[in-house]
Specification:
By secondary structure, the chain is of the alpha+beta class. The chain contains 16 helices and 33 strands.
């Protein structure tokens, strides 16, 4: 069974248990095995499927990631394979798996549809007693599928149900069935369809049930993460706790197996390449045994993976993760707009060569800054086209004013700018590139015209960067403890200007240090090599003192696959739900979406997102960083992007981004209108056999 061009999925069926093999056609060529357990499956069936999973994994060299799926509690990744929805037949068999016989019309079933991202439909009793006011129901009668929308269902749920109905029509009926839609709150507008429903369900008596609350989505986001070592050296299974979050990759040894417990929401088993065959082959059964020992629910999610084939979710639980053969850097100049994927990886909206405007918050109002002082930062400032909110040593009122004025600027440019919150010291690459190596952050003072700053005496600046696109100078306390052997420092006094080169800095860093020094002072600079400092240098710093003198190792950017979350209050509560194997189609115009690229958080605002979702999304992003089990940096940049104004740093994380998608896509109302005139659906004669 094929699902588009990005993946292939093969199925082996064990009645009410299934084994699914998914092979990605992407560059990573990842392979996943999903072991699905239906509610009605027996222990023998589950055992047979588990044995087959082990054999299949061995046949494929142990590289696949194994997932244990339980009916009704499947992972987002598993559900993502069935874009139009997954239907459970009575007895637990999912029709998303089985061979479909087209042109079969002798059918009468009622499907209870739930979900806005990953839709599931469960067969229920064909009776009005199965209905409720908040969900959507499909009455499938072979030659006609009637969709009944609960009065409290939302537009996205209705759209997904229509797509599921169309999938039933096209895939199971060869396109020969008709579809009709009834709005539950306006049943009088569809008398012919209601007549059909009444003939099947009987006359409705009494009131329909209240909505069934949606289960709280599993955000896979809990700080209670523990790593256990698994061993059978003594002849019996021993599980010993090794560490709690934040975890580091060096905790994993290739000779052993480990269980990672994510607070009971999921259990992951990691198999080292040099672990014994017995330990590797029994990984899945041990995970199940661990769940029982911990008294976790039987539907707890399980993943089993081998060293080198870790899932994105597993790697996200570690503070850093390095891939074998990982390299860093561009190597040559690229056009970022022409290559949005590269732009996203490099966190650059463009080459920062556009027009720049800078404002300062003065008396809580915007004050345009003289272009001659661009790059010199003292407090809260704003830039437009990309609107940056730069937060340093500001008062609460100034921080509030910055945010307020950013909204005003956003409105001025009709919502087109991308808004980025930047914390001093956490400036993103594009922000640095705007100033072409001229960014200088002063510890105190002001850039206001006519204001004389107090004489600070000696001043010390730390310079970091290897070229004009990534360099900044930050004022630090004027004392020896501020020095770092890996960097360049500029020490400015009334008599001298010292340019200090640490032993660990590179030639490029020294050149940028000279360039920044010329911006700060026209005086002649005295080059000082670490270990050869003159007495006047130490006097200006208040005397010698210990400082960071360990040479840094060559740092490489950790590879973490991006994750997408839907932020919505359509169920009455504000919730975040992860979207697996996401595409542009998963960006819901009615919601706010959070894209986590590890070095940056994007908040994508759909055109129809309500005000509450928009307001709550930012605080939710902050909480997401604070509670992340990998101990994420709370100063990670958070970028707000409006639908239709996505920069390449955002679009590059999506495969085959279509800039015109929303101008040609059909809304629920448009799709409903294309189903045909309801009055022309004549299917009553198809049910003459129904009494």
């Amino acid at each position: 069974m094929s699902f588009g061009t990005q993946r292939k999925l093969t199925l082996w069926k064990f009645y009410c248990s299934h084994v699914c093999l998914q092979v990605s056609n992407s560059a990573t060529q990842s392979t996943d095995i999903h072991y699905w357990i239906g509610n009605a499956s027996s222990q023998d069936e589950q055992g047979a499927a588990a044995v087959y999973v082990t054999q299949l994994d061995k046949c494929l060299g142990g590289s696949p990631v194994q997932y244990r799926e339980v009916q009704g509690c499947e992972s987002a990744k598993f559900k993502s394979y069935f874009k139009n929805g997954l239907i459970y037949k009575k007895g637990g068999v999912g029709s998303g798996f089985t061979h479909v016989e087209t042109n079969v019309y002798n059918i009468q079933r009622l499907l209870h549809v739930k979900g806005t991202k990953h839709v599931t439909a469960r067969e229920v009793e064909v009776s009005w007693s199965s209905f409720n006011l908040g969900d959507i129901f499909l009455l499938d009668l072979g030659k006609a599928v009637i969709q009944w929308n609960g009065p409290q269902s939302n537009r996205q749920e209705k759209l997904k149900a229509v797509l599921l109905a169309q999938d039933i029509r096209d895939r199971e009926r060869g396109g020969r069935a008709q579809i009709g839609v009834i709005e539950g709150g306006q049943e009088d507008a569809s008398p012919e369809l209601m007549k059909i429903m009444t003939s099947v369900l009987g006359q409705r008596t009494g009131h329909l049930k209240e909505p069934i609350p949606d289960d709280k989505p599993d955000q896979n986001q809990t700080s209670n993460v523990k790593l256990y070592h698994v061993s059978d050296a003594s002849g019996q299974l021993l599980v010993q706790e090794v560490a709690t979050s934040p975890l580091t990759q060096d905790l994993l040894s290739s000779t052993d197996c480990y269980i990672l417990d994510q607070g009971g929401s999921s259990v992951m088993v990691w198999k080292g390449k040099a672990a014994s065959d017995e330990e590797r082959h029994s990984a899945l059964s041990r995970a199940v045994g661990f769940i029982k020992a911990k008294n976790y629910p039987s539907n707890t999610k399980v993943e089993v993976m081998s060293e080198g084939g870790e899932s994105a979710m597993f790697k996200h639980l570690f503070k850093s993760w390095k891939e074998k053969g990982q390299i860093q850097g561009l190597g040559k100049t690229h056009s970022l707009h022409a290559q949005p994927k590269l732009a996203a990886q490099e966190r650059m909206v463009d080459d920062a060569s556009g027009h720049v405007q800078v404002w300062r918050i003065e008396n809580l109002e915007l004050k345009e800054v003289n272009p001659s002082t661009y790059g010199q930062f003292y407090g809260g400032r704003l830039l437009s086209s990309v609107v940056y909110l730069q937060q340093s040593q500001q008062t609460t009122d100034e921080v509030t004013a910055s945010a307020y004025q950013a909204v005003n600027l956003d409105n001025k440019y009709n919502g087109a700018p991308v808004q980025v919150r930047v914390v001093m010291g956490k400036e993103p690459r594009h922000f640095l590139a705007i100033f072409k190596g001229r960014l200088i952050i002063f510890e105190g003072g002001t850039g206001r015209a006519g204001v004389v700053n107090p004489d600070p005496g000696a001043r010390l600046f730390q310079v970091r960067g290897t070229h004009e696109m990534n360099t900044k100078a930050t004022e630090v306390p004027t004392r020896a403890a501020s020095l770092n052997t890996n960097d360049v420092f500029l020490l400015k006094t009334h008599q001298n200007v010292f340019l200090w080169y640490g032993k660990g800095c590179s030639g490029d860093e020294r050149e940028m240090g000279k360039a920044v020094a010329d911006l700060l002072s026209e005086q002649d600079k005295q080059i000082v090599m670490e270990g050869q400092e003159p007495a006047a240098f130490w006097v200006a710093l208040g005397g010698k003192a210990p400082y960071a003198s360990d040479k840094r190792l060559e740092k490489e950017v950790a590879l973490h696959e991006p994750r997408l979350f839907e932020c919505s209050n359509q169920t009455g509560r504000f919730l975040m739900t992860e979207v697996a194997d996401f595409t542009q189609d998963d960006l819901d115009e009615d919601d706010v979406m959070l894209l986590d690229t590890w070095e940056e958080i994007f908040l994508w605002i759909g055109n129809s997102a309500n005000q509450y979702e928009t307001q709550e999304s930012y605080s939710c992003a902050v909480d997401y960083l604070k509670t992340h089990p990998a101990g994420r940096d709370p100063g990670t940049p958070i970028t707000t992007v409006k639908q239709g104004y996505e920069p390449p740093t955002f679009t590059g994380w999506f495969n085959a981004w279509d800039a015109h998608k929303w101008s040609v896509s059909l809304s629920y109302e448009e799709m409903k209108s294309k189903l045909g005139d309801i009055s022309q659906i004549t299917v009553v004669k198809s049910f003459n056999h129904i009494d």
